[in-house]
Structure prediction request, 192 residues.
Amino acid sequence: MSAFLVVGLGNPGPQYAATRHNVGFEVVDLLADRAGASFKRHRSGAEIAEVHLGMPPAPRAVLAKPQSFMNVSGGPTKALAGYFDVPPEHIIVIHDELDLPLGSIRLKLGGGDNGHNGLKSITKALGTRDYLRVRIGIGRPPGRQDPADFVLRPFAASERAEAGVVLEEAADAVEVLVRDGLAVAQNQVHSR
Prediction:
């Protein structure tokens, strides 16, 4: 069976570490911690960790954090998919979603990019929209704040506890998605 490629979207560098836009990085970090794995630099331009998600005989997965910045994540994603021979239906992209309230997670296969430049880049590089997405709600910016500014800010102190819970739930969702498939994972995650 083909491995899964789990791509957490984010921006490299300490100034972006705890921002809303980096929830994808945080989820793959959690998955690596659970598997006792550490990341190493790969020639694709991403940091990767090869793991088994869950108890043996759990499926093999390559966790990835593209180091090319969010808006050009497609190149490293395509390079990794080719290197590890992962078909699009086994690629899982974890990303922030402005149109979902904080604390919500939605799973889907394919669809549009909804203005998300990381997804635009991946879709263009892969030549298909038919990859799995784990959408993590970060909420809309307050008032007239620019969404581009909003996503690059850390969660407010009052939101951080809820954000921590949703990141753990997103990691759980990825494990269920890999182990049991999209329909089962959607039933579990969307019913919360």
